[in-house]
Amino acid sequence: xxxxxxxxxTIGGEGASAGKEPRTARGRRTLRxxxxxxxxxxxxxxxHEGSISGITRRAGVALGSxxxxxxxxxxxxxxxxxxxxxxxxxxxxxAMRDAASQISAEKAALSAFIRFAREHKEIYRIIDEAEFVDxxxxxxxxxxxxxxxxxxxxxxxGRGEIRDDISEIHAWAIMxxxxxxxxxxxxxxxxxxxxxxxxxxxxxxxxxxAAKR
Amino acid sequence: xxxxxxxxxTIGGEGASAGKEPRTARGRRTLRxxxxxxxxxxxxxxxHEGSISGITRRAGVALGSxxxxxxxxxxxxxxxxxxxxxxxxxxxxxAMRDAASQISAEKAALSAFIRFAREHKEIYRIIDEAEFVDxxxxxxxxxxxxxxxxxxxxxxxGRGEIRDDISEIHAWAIMxxxxxxxxxxxxxxxxxxxxxxxxxxxxxxxxxxAAKR
Lengths: 213, 213
Description:
- The structure is a homodimer.
- Chain A has helices at residues 7-10, 25-49, 52-59, 63-69, 73-96, 102-119, 122-133, 135-158, 168-188, 194-207.
- By secondary structure, chain A is an all-alpha fold.
- In chain A, α2 (25-49) crosses α5 (73-96), α2 (25-49) packs across α7 (122-133) and α6 (102-119) runs parallel beside α9.
- The termini of chain A are far apart.
């Protein structure tokens, strides 16, 4: 990306470029179609080979509609990274809601994430390419995700469900486990039941892996 | 990379292209200097902006020396990914050797990896860029690393030090934790003592994070 402008300064509400937010339900549907098409385009071709015309063709909208909501290819990519972050959060959060404990909630979150990543394998390529195309978005994605995990761990520690010496280190450890388990068991190979993966990690979080003596 | 040739087919012994392995101590030193220079060049500029002439300039060797050991920029990049994998393993393995238990060994491995990554921050950019430049090397790096972790966990389970229901899932979980803790606490910010990070993860592996009731 050419500039050091902050995400907040260039992406307005609901994912469009600043000042280009949709004002109608129809506009929001068009914006959604453009973001979904951008996920396909960049997921399959990568940022450099991907094009605005490829996105509008996939979305079935006119080129002008793209510029109604975005200023540039850089801007739609940046919006897409934030959109994928939001989509993961919105898919995973309800799965945790009825969990009986924080450990159960973390299991449910991982199982939901594995299932999400199987349906949206392009998320890996897009987030990973952001490290090179838009480092600020890459960093924001992981910093925000770790912060969210850290906050729910702290709340659970406050309720006495998990240890009270929990820190940001644990949040990053859990995020790292989840990201790599998704790479292995969603993007590379879907042969293992997501609940089996979540069970193994839940047991690790509940008891550790040391042998009981 | 243009072809689907296997790593073993294009990279010979000691990191050079097949058939171009150094035969003398001096040759091995030159090859080492080229690989170190390639890590700097690709780490700073990325694969596409990086050049063979940039590598030879940094290494202080003639362009001809490059072609004594490598066929192309693709080949030196592929060799570099494997070399970084090997360097991590060689740096981390001795740290685990005298550990009193497998949990202590995993702590020592993480602490060593954090210290390695602080000295070689370019490893993240290089391995991550391999996902796009040379997917086969990217995959081999993580598959090999997870396999190594899985083998040492299995051996420890056999000795009764860790639970006997350990699987590949645990190996990927531990690798993911370590990779993301290195990103956060080596590449982004060195403010936390590696031993503190290892202590938190060692305690997670030993006991889990559930509150004791």
